[in-house]
């Protein structure tokens, strides 16, 4: 609020200088005073959000204290009256604007004003409760699945590592929605003495979990299942990896204890979320696709029809493929952190994870970077750095975490890995993690389960598309009112000058 007052005062000072030293005189002052009042009240009410009713007296009192004394006591009463009138006109236009956006413009029966102010509360002040209330009102629901792989040392009872493949999308931004869910799960499993690595399942912004009760339910269910793994049947078998290629798409397939884990990428071609709908034509419950999400491009907002078709062909081929699991399984895992970098730089709290997996003489390395996508060069540098270690296959993934999104304004709102954090440094940290993982390689067993959650409230694509359309419409209304405040300043300045 102090910043708003400062901006308001700057406008007034400029107007006062125009009044004193230019031929435009009083009209220039009323323009600047009216526009500044309009902007100040609009932003103030936007930040007040659902508490706007209780905020009205404060903004009215503040502006009255600033404008009434000059109108009453200045020797140049024309100036003082212009000041007061400008505040009334500008502030009044702001109030009318907010009422229009609150009462006449709706997204799925939720006012666009409520939606915008709730988003601002998250982005500017870290207050999630208003937007979560909107989430509870949404009618859109989705099914969320989480494949859980529990690894333990051969012959031991306690799980040591969970690899989770969720289909909830880790978004939409900051710590709102399901952006923070991965970290809460990892922290809770860590308290049980279990490390966690996340692979990105097929998900997009249609599967952002927006209701608090749904996120709590998912968390509780994951922890309950983790406890059941102590008494679950484990196996130890793994196949050699198999590569599939279709046009620009690539698939890396492992068969682990009867389950097929398929890593999908279009690297170096730009890629975004692989849509869950791609699985509708695949009838194989044992196929678990992983979206590598490892090739950011400014030109790619959604996957092309051709890329989706290529991934579909790979999924079909993988579903029809049976790999020979003739070898006992070995694993090693480790994590490295980039302590000198922060969320604003694009790296989440899970840092760089390395999973070394395969048979004793045929190991593969899976690197998981906790970021929202990465530049193509990141995968190239990591593979180049790890190749001398003799792995059969190497793949680089990102978690697609959106906890790094919305932390700064301007541009796209986040940094893909490789943009601020150099690819070479990510490669070194990956090498560090892999070396640690190799030192801990041991015979292992795995158990698996799949959790399904029905009726999970999400911000669907239809809601987001409608919100985008209504936001542009609201922006047009705002600009119209902004222009009105300018011309209102001109008119009442001319009337006072006459």
Sheet having the most strands: 8 strands, mixed
Order of neighbouring strands in the sheet with most strands: 5-4-3-14-10-11-12-13
β-strand amount: 15-25%
Given helix and strand content, the structural type is alpha+beta
- Give me the Rg, rounded: 28 Å
Number of DSSP E strands: 14
Overall 3D form: elongated
Q: What is the terminal-to-terminal distance?
A: 36 Å
Q: Helices and strands, in N-to-C order?
A: HHHHEEHHEEHEHEEEEHEEEHEHEH
Q: Averaged pLDDT, please?
A: 88
List the domain count as a whole number: 2
Unreliable stretches covering 5 or more consecutive residues: 1-5, 17-23
Provide a count of the helices.
12
State the share of residues found in helices, binned by percent: 40-55%
Could you explain how this protein is built, in words?
- The protein is α+β, with helices and mostly antiparallel strands and 498 residues long.
- The protein has two domains: 2-119 and 465-497, no CATH class; 146-447, no CATH class.
- Helices cover 45% and strands 19% of the residues.
- The chain is built from twelve helices and 14 strands.
- Strands 5-4-3-14-10-11-12-13 form an eight-stranded mixed β-sheet, with helices on both faces. A four-stranded mixed β-sheet has the order 6-7-8-9. A two-stranded antiparallel ribbon has the order 1-2.
- Strand 3 and strand 4 form a beta hairpin.
- The longest helix has 37 residues, at 461-497.
- The model is unreliable at 1-5 and 17-23 (pLDDT under 50).
